[in-house]
Design a protein that fits this description.
With about 240 residues, the protein is mainly α. The chain has a domain of about 110 residues. Helix 3 runs antiparallel to helix 8. The longest helix is centred in the last third of the chain and has 51 residues. The mean pLDDT is about 80.
Length: about 240
């Protein structure tokens, strides 16, 4: 579906920016940065699912451990709750399915969470796996440790949500600024299309339009990198 949207976007761009559908074939290379952007967007979404799912897991594990369940049985009970709430296709539930399957064949639970941490690239899950490994080797109050871990992750998620709220306004402004050239071209085409004939039907004009399009694309990815740095530094 994403590729269909990309092709439709290129078709509209070739008509709006060059007044010729022949440019549809020359602009196919734009599918490369488009595909890269959509891939990164999916990865960010899945990572947020992992973070939120892990927090929900800790919330479910804590009362089970307080009730006297073993960590393995608590994980199985928490998995059933998560599956009912989020569904089997949720990214974190899929990872918990592997954990439960590993528990059923008697794989150490800390090893399973280590593997989950490597797949999800989550620092919180990695630290949790290290804590479980230490608890297994030295003993300790697992309930208290889980409570402290849950509080820390909750504070981190609240901070991340605040930063996303702050950045959302800047992202809106950024997107509006990047769309302004397209709105301007649409306005000129509707009001008086002859103004654009020199840009559409001469080699220097098409060169100017190509440079303008390249500038918009560069500004888009530059602003995305700035937003990413902001998220990574302050979260």
């Amino acid at each position: 579906m994403e590729w269909v949207a990309g092709e439709l976007g290129i078709c509209a761009l070739s008509y709006l920016w060059y007044d010729s559908y022949y440019w549809f074939f020359f602009l196919q290379f734009l599918l490369i940065p488009y595909g890269y952007y959509m891939y990164k967007r999916r990865m960010r979404y899945r990572k947020r699912q992992y973070e939120r799912g892990f927090y929900e897991l800790l919330q479910s594990l804590l009362p089970s451990l307080q009730a006297g369940y073993s960590l393995e049985n608590a994980c199985i009970a928490a998995y059933r709750e998560l599956k009912e709430i989020d569904g089997e296709e949720h990214a974190f539930v899929e990872q918990m399915t592997l954990v439960v399957q590993g528990i059923e064949v008697h794989i150490p639970v800390e090893d399973l969470f280590h593997e989950m941490a490597s797949v999800t690239d989550s620092e919180d899950i990695h630290q949790f796996a290290v804590i479980l490994e230490i608890l297994k080797n030295t003993g300790g109050n697992s309930v208290e440790i889980l409570r402290n871990s849950m509080i820390r992750i909750q504070k981190k998620m609240e901070t991340a949500e605040e930063i996303r709220t702050i950045l959302s306004g800047k992202i809106y402004e950024k997107n509006l600024m990047l769309l302004m050239p397209f709105f301007l071209v649409i306005y000129l085409r509707i009001s008086n299309g002859s103004y654009l004939d020199m840009l559409y039907h001469t080699i220097p004009g098409r060169l100017v339009m190509t440079l303008a399009l390249a500038g918009i694309i560069v500004c888009f990815f530059w602003s995305e990198s700035i937003m990413k740095i902001s998220r990574d530094v302050f979260v």
